[in-house]
Amino acid sequence: MLFPLPLRVACSLLAWFSLYAWFCHRYKHRNYEWSCRLVTLTHGILATCLSAYVGFIDGPWPMSHPGSPNTTLQVHVLCLSLGYFLFDLCWCVYFQTEGALMLAHHLVSILGITASLALGESAAEVNAVIFGSEITNPLLQARWFLKEIGCYHSFTGDVVDFFFVVLFTGVRIGVGAWLMYCELASPKPRWYIKLGGVIMYAVSWVFMVSICRFARRKSMKKYHAWRSRRSDELYLKTNGHLKNH
């Protein structure tokens, strides 16, 4: 017999908090954000894998069946993610580490998942949104950990940044536009589910603007560094040539 939805969400919240407490105990020499980031990384990997299985294998396909009744597996994934978002929202508010945009992202995610669970429908597209949102999360956390250990300004950091920008642009903006079109074109989903999808896509675009600015700054910095190295090489070659004469 399945437990009531509120109890399952409470168990999920407790599980994420317990994992956070274990990380805090395991990494005593690190700050609290280190442990929270590990929890976020764990959820990102787990949610991406589960939501991908739900969308691509178990079904139904969110692009063709928006507003369809929730399946048992979809409900499990939503409860798991809802517990995480509640934990992370409380952590961010308590430690005041995030701005209004990230808090709004978490609130909309919580409301969207809660509405889908309460209605018993639209989990297909909500799971798809979770997949799109979380697929870039491990790379985002990798950037933070690389900065913390002093390895961000390296080839590894460049690779992580490249794949983060490519995935964000391709999945959250590209595929996200397709999902939003299918959601809005279908008569089945409730209007507030559609509104939530539009808000989430708008938030993605706000993030995208910041990412574009970051990518431009980093590209220009790399370009100027290359120009500087190139000038130094030419200078050394020229001096060497003059000395030989």
Automatic annotation (TrEMBL):
The chain crosses the membrane at residues 6-24, 36-55, 75-94, 158-179, 191-212. InterPro entries: TLC-dom, TLCD5. Its main location: membrane. Residues 29-204 form the TLC domain. It is found in: Membrane. Keywords: Membrane, Transmembrane, Transmembrane helix. It is a multi-pass membrane protein. GO terms for cellular component: membrane. The keyword Ribosomal protein does not apply. It comes from the Eukaryota. The keyword Transmembrane helix applies. PANTHER family: TLC DOMAIN-CONTAINING PROTEIN 5, TRANSMEMBRANE PROTEIN 136. This is TLC domain-containing protein 5-like. It comes from Strigops habroptila. The gene is LOC115616361.
